[in-house]
């Protein structure tokens, strides 16, 4: 869902549609103000958390009962993606890891996100963070990728584990 911005964050005037470099963009209507809302994608880190031969899938408190996914979160200012993904795993599962294996980057147009995915092998006792309602442990042999969001990262990670 594209973000809807109606007012200029620099001067408060309304934004209007305009052709800029061959694309329709929202720009400030005030004379002399040069603000353009570019609607750049938001970087999000995703973790395939592996514990004892299983991948941890989590259900956010705001999600439907049967919806589970990877551990994800936003990059914070001055954070690199590998540091951010390890922080998210620590915050959401209470697990520490010193290793983050890069899997790939994926566009998620529906949420205007750029997903930066990692495999995080770790161990220990899981303690759910404040955002999570539940987790489930899926044996790697039973893990199936899904079509959108972080699913392509799961697909690529599983493919990288298979002998060629």
UniProtKB/TrEMBL annotation:
<dbReference type="GO" id="GO:0046872">
    <property type="term" value="F:metal ion binding"/>
</dbReference>
<dbReference type="InterPro" id="IPR000086">
    <property type="entry name" value="NUDIX_hydrolase_dom"/>
</dbReference>
<keyword id="KW-0460">Magnesium</keyword>
<comment type="similarity">
    <text>Belongs to the Nudix hydrolase family. NudC subfamily.</text>
</comment>
<keyword id="KW-0378">Hydrolase</keyword>
<feature type="domain" description="Nudix hydrolase">
    <location>
        <begin position="40"/>
        <end position="160"/>
    </location>
</feature>
<dbReference type="GO" id="GO:0005829">
    <property type="term" value="C:cytosol"/>
</dbReference>
<protein>
    <submittedName>
        <fullName>ADP-ribose pyrophosphatase</fullName>
    </submittedName>
</protein>
<dbReference type="GO" id="GO:0006742">
    <property type="term" value="P:NADP+ catabolic process"/>
</dbReference>
<dbReference type="InterPro" id="IPR050241">
    <property type="entry name" value="NAD-cap_RNA_hydrolase_NudC"/>
</dbReference>
<keyword id="KW-0479">Metal-binding</keyword>
<dbReference type="Pfam" id="PF00293">
    <property type="entry name" value="NUDIX"/>
</dbReference>
<dbReference type="GO" id="GO:0019677">
    <property type="term" value="P:NAD+ catabolic process"/>
</dbReference>
<dbReference type="GO" id="GO:0035529">
    <property type="term" value="F:NADH pyrophosphatase activity"/>
</dbReference>
<dbReference type="InterPro" id="IPR020084">
    <property type="entry name" value="NUDIX_hydrolase_CS"/>
</dbReference>
<dbReference type="InterPro" id="IPR015797">
    <property type="entry name" value="NUDIX_hydrolase-like_dom_sf"/>
</dbReference>
